[in-house]
Write a structure and sequence with these properties.
alpha+beta, eleven-stranded antiparallel β-sheet, 428 residues, ten-stranded antiparallel β-sheet, 32% strand
């Protein structure tokens, strides 16, 4: 028998960011996702059903089969996709991921709170859970306070202690050789030296950043808070598919004059323009695998994202009648701006030079609902926690014109959007 969500609508009496943080911290569910998608904020707690896809995946047909049997009507699923899912779908083996580790983790939540405008929608299948959710929302606790300065500054060292410049130099040999590789995104991890309060970090970091999407989650064995600069894939209910690649970067300093100069330099730098143009070209080619009427709109504008500004474009298409939203996601994932051109040879270079699986970094946090709407945020500008370890990660797009010192500095510029807002756990 298929269950139904019970729903209650309430007025929104506090800022959405504070409410979502309060639900994540004070709710009864260890497993949860907070997702900000433009005008809507969502909290999803618990799980009525769970789906995990491991490294032997060849396509996402199993996802659609699972969704066909979801035991509740009107569902929306929440979850994440690891970067290595892209390599698995492309048939690339030996990514270093444990065969039993999930590459895709999705849940149908037990409860949801969605905030849009001045209204809240609360949903739960179980009446008791819905009543408890109403009480939690109506408790009216103040929004999560930002800690006083300098508590949010943990003091993460951003120096190149792991040979990043050397890795870029090695990648340049591949790029300048006879092979097909035209671009590869190399990233580096930076350890956080103390345990973090991820909920407080999310609140403080969200107030300081200007993301396309944001998220806070504890789901499938990993916790993360992030301020995504771009989406990998958006599929609307009328089957319009959108991806918003960013490639080409300069810092934001806080000085209007200096930032304007950096913006002008970004728009005129041959290396950055070339990197962006070839990224958009591949994004269009990926889109054309599943869509008709593809085109680029708002081509090579500049978007401000926290401590950096990027060259930005939007690519769009109309999903063909014989293709599904999950096939659109598979065609676009991982984002070209986090992988390379072409993607398949880039996987080998990334694996060899980074030395470990990326996991959630450069993957996606996503939602998908029964109407066919899919929204997948690229996991960058994020902090991760797994077990006792916390870390940051950032990368840069390497092309033939790259210089190792500049690419390292670009990773620092991106890392600062998170590193300057880390909140230590109590007693640290």
């Amino acid at each position: 028998m298929t269950a139904q969500y019970r729903e209650i609508r309430l007025p929104l009496t506090e800022e959405p960011l504070g409410l979502m943080a309060r639900l994540a911290r004070g709710g009864p569910y260890d497993q949860y996702t907070v997702y900000e998608n433009g005008p809507e904020w969502s909290y999803a707690g618990g799980a009525l059903a769970t789906f995990r896809l491991t490294a032997d995946a060849r396509d996402l047909a199993a996802v659609e089969e699972w969704l066909a049997d979801v035991p509740v009507t009107g569902w929306r699923v929440y979850g994440w996709a690891a970067f290595e899912l892209g390599a698995a779908l492309a048939g690339v083996r030996g990514s270093g991921t444990d065969p039993g580790e999930p590459l895709l983790h999705l849940v149908v939540p037990a409860v949801e709170v969605r905030a849009r405008g001045e209204r809240l929608l609360l949903r739960a299948v179980d009446p008791g859970q819905l009543d408890a959710l109403v009480r939690l929302v109506e408790a009216g606790a103040p929004a999560e306070p930002g800690p006083p300065e300098p508590v949010g500054r943990v003091g993460v060292a951003l120096d190149d202690t792991g040979g990043y410049r050397d890795a870029v130099t090695t990648a340049l040999h591949d790029l300048r050789g006879p092979g097909p590789l035209a671009k590869v995104i190399l990233s580096r991890r930076v350890a956080v030296p103390v345990p973090l309060d991820l909920t407080a970090t999310y609140v403080v970091g969200r107030r300081a950043n200007t993301p396309a999407r944001s998220f806070l989650l504890n789901l499938g064995g990993i916790s993360a808070a992030g301020f995504s600069p771009e989406t990998v894939a958006e599929v609307t209910g009328d089957r319009r598919v959108v991806s918003r690649p960013l490639a080409g970067t300069r810092a934001r300093t806080g000085s209007p004059d200096e930032d304007a100069q950096l913006r002008a330099d970004l728009l005129s730098d041959p290396k950055e323009v070339h990197e962006h143009a070839i990224s958009v070209k591949l994004a269009l080619e990926d889109l054309a695998l599943v869509c008709d009427d593809t085109c680029a709109t708002a081509y090579m504008t500049v978007e401000e994202r926290g401590t950096v500004q990027h060259l930005a474009s939007t690519v769009v298409g109309r999903l063909r009648a014989d293709r599904t939203p999950w096939q659109a996601f598979a065609a676009l994932f991982p984002a070209v701006t986090a992988t390379g051109i072409p993607k398949t040879p880039a996987y080998d270079v990334i694996r060899a030079l980074e030395g470990r699986p990326r996991g959630l970094y450069a993957g996606a946090v996503l939602t998908y609902d029964v109407s066919g709407e899919l929204d997948a945020a690229l996991v960058l500008r994020s902090v991760f926690r797994q077990g006792d370890h916390c870390w940051l990660q950032a990368g840069a797009g390497i092309v033939r014109q790259s210089h190792p010192a500049r690419e390292h500095e670009e990773t620092c510029e991106k890392l600062r959007s998170i590193a300057e807002h880390l909140v230590p756990a109590p007693d640290h």
